[in-house]
């Protein structure tokens, strides 16, 4: 478990996860965050066409990044994304195409950089202490939702406290849908992802801003038509290229029932 202490951070912090190889979305987010602190919860590479350009943009920015499961897998030259999809599901089958596409684009230098990323980052902001993770603490690829039972989140907090001590807030990503919960006095903040819309029929993606101890959620408008076109030209046509246009995921396998289409609530 690699832990990085970022120290004290000042001013608004733009929080986001999952660029997902979507260069168009990442470029738009970087433009919005210009002159502010930025922090990424991992999974730089995934569904989109531009894995290496996204890694290059993130590295050039110098922003803190925690390792997502995809970073772990690319760093170790694994054969799959390690996303936690059940074998044989639509998400699992689609991931084989986009992961292979991202893997081919990676350089040895990029893999070495990914191998050095922390699993947990901690910082203080406005008198509060935060920890940044990717999915969960017990498992990097754990899917946690606005509807996840409180005792599951409490277990993850216990695991986190064992590694880094008490915190006032947890910032994570991975699941793809932003939410905020409060468990035992700790704010659990999923900042969402910028590379794929949150399955609500809106093509805009999600990020969050931490300011004065409060978090706010925002939608990111970007050239989603260009991003979808880039995927099509790369042969990445498993359905996620259409999700960039429609705002609906091609599969809801991983979603709990209350978050599936027709009963969507972001929490």
UniProtKB/TrEMBL annotation:
It comes from the Bacteria. Transmembrane segments: none annotated. SUPFAM superfamilies: Metallo-dependent phosphatases. Gene3D superfamilies: 3.60.21.10. Residues 33-210 form the Calcineurin-like phosphoesterase domain. Belongs to the metallophosphoesterase superfamily. YfcE family. This is Metallophosphoesterase. It comes from Thalassobius vesicularis.
